[in-house]
């Protein structure tokens, strides 16, 4: 996997993935940015949510669950020193579908957390406390 990050001036950077997708990252005005895109750490947090959400939906579909929606709400805390790394991340999944079985949703979230989500497992190994919860909506 490869990516390129190119400085765009001031506190703005454009990232391009190997698959050809671009992401604009920018800093806040008090750090020379113009707030034109997410901060790099926000992008990292989105990556954790995207990676885990992909797993949860994929596992549920393989379990023949009729998933119609999945939203992952993330909250994170960072340490109060430099580097301001994440200390805690919580992922809360809101899963919707037809006749979803709670044990299947619980299993999908657990499998993502413990076995499949490369992003959250990597951060967990680095000392970030990562927790998960879920709600099923009809």
Can you give a write-up of this model?
There is one protein chain. With 138 residues, the protein is α+β, with helices and mostly antiparallel strands. It folds into 2 domains: 1-38, N-terminal domain of TfIIb (Single Sheet), CATH 2.20.25; 40-137, K homology (KH) domain (GMP Synthetase, Chain A, domain 3). The chain has helices at residues 40-62, 102-116, 118-125; strands spanning 3-9, 12-17, 22-25, 66-78, 86-98, 129-137. The strands form 2 sheets. Strands 1-2-3 form a 3-stranded antiparallel β-sheet, with no helix packed on it. Strand 4 and strand 5 (86-98) form a beta hairpin. Helix 1 (40-62) crosses helix 2 (102-116). 20% of the residues are buried. The mean pLDDT is 97. InterPro entries: KH_dom-like_a/b, OsmC/Ohr_fam, OsmC/Ohrsf. Residues 18-37 are annotated as: Disordered.
β-strand number: 6
Gap between N and C termini: 38 Å
Q: Outline, from the CA principal axes?
A: elongated
How many structurally independent domains?
2
CATH topology of the largest domain: GMP Synthetase, Chain A, domain 3
Broad structural category? alpha+beta
The level 1 CATH classification of the largest domain is Alpha Beta
Low-confidence stretches: none
State the major sheet: 3 strands, antiparallel
The CATH superfamily of the largest domain appears as: K homology (KH) domain
Order of helices and strands: EEEHEEHHE
**Overall pLDDT score:** 97
Strand content: 35-45%
What's the tally of helices?
3
Residue share in helices?
25-40%
CATH-level-2 architecture of the largest domain: 2-Layer Sandwich
- Biggest sheet, spatial arrangement of strands: 1-2-3
Global Rg: 17 Å
Protein name: OsmC/Ohr family protein
Region (Disordered): 18-37
